[in-house]
From TrEMBL:
Pfam families: JetA. It comes from the Bacteria. This is Uncharacterized protein.
Amino acid sequence: MVASIFGSLEPSQFRIFSTENATFYADLVEYLATEVFRFAAETIRKKQVQRAIEDFILAREWQASLSSEEGLLDGPVHYAVYRHLVKSKWLEEGRDGLRTVVDLNSEARLLLQALLDIKSGKVRSFGGEVLQVKTLIDAVRRDPESTSENLTWAGAHAERFMTNLRAIVGAMRKVEQSMKGQSSVSGMMDAFFHNYITDNYIADFRKLRGENSPYRFRHDLVEDVRAMMEDALLINVLSSAFVREGRAPSLEEAEDNIINSLSTISEVFSSIDSHIDMIEATNSRIERRVLNINRFLSRMGDDQTGQFIDAAKRLGRSKLTSKCKLPVRYDVMDVLPHYDRGSLHKSRPPRKIPAPVIARKRMKDPALVAYEAAKRHYIDRTRVNPDRVRQFLDVKMGKEISIRASDIKIGSLDEFFIFERLLIIKTIFPDDLKEVEIKRLPTPLQNEWISCSDFEIKKRAETLEISQ
């Protein structure tokens, strides 16, 4: 299970992010990848890498904040950091003649690129994922032989899009729970502005719901993918390309991979409405909560507080006793209602019996009746059944044992309807007309009615014996 998730990555490559100096190492490997090794066409010497690490530590004043990790106190700090990166398989040493050269580990470089994409928010570009899938699918439809690999990438981008949507749902639930857990209004507003307004998930989702967002292409994308799944010729071309380019050992496995990728894309973009509804529902709950907070704050403003304090001071300076009743006007409803329940509620009047309505049957148009009758007559006339075939053969063959189709004279349209089905009559009626055999001949048949292969109609021996 671990090998299938991390592949060829070394466990030590993750260990530097679990120490007390994890922030330092995260910034350092990003600096090495983007500044030191980024444009280097050749491998860099060991001294150059150590000098770059030293410059990084001095420029950002990291040396004072580095904890006493094992190995960092042995000699200069930049040497110890370099040894730690080599030991954790982030850096690889090699020999170029008498020189020691250093390069980033290939698997570590891919891991770092994925982490940088997460940091920059590229993996949450919802509109970009939709546009990327559409572009790849369009390229496959235009040139399936040369761009078949785009189909695999399109399926991967579709899965990433669904992962991002699920991350949105989880992030918004986390924001809602964070707001519910605050015991003060200031804490609730702070959680709203820091975790909701400035959150990259929410900002990107706002762009996704925009009028000009690539998200509007999702319906066209689903239709295109379903049309590709029903196109047998396109699937065959893509399967051949998969086998030719070495992405599948056989046509059957290639076809399965293609159908799986197309099914993934179709299912993802067909089932995202439930996620969108859940996000919208959570979003509305959060906004209602903030709206209620604003209403509460507007009622408890400084002007209202000053009025309460002034009223209390005036009441204290008055000559009223503590037991004196003071009439106060208030804008709230009394505990006891002013009206009884009967005067506030009006019962529904009894339902009246509906008046009878005379239903009149609408007569059919005589032209439509005549058309339907003519249509039924035509269907009955053109329908071929075993009895009509037997009557036709009895008339045309007479007492002959066999007859060629080219020797049969067609005299009417009714006979033509039967004649054109003789060659496939065994397929139409497999359990009937066993008294005759139909044999296809290599010579062609052509007359004023039909052009097809000639065939021979022959009565079976058992049928002849019974008739004799």
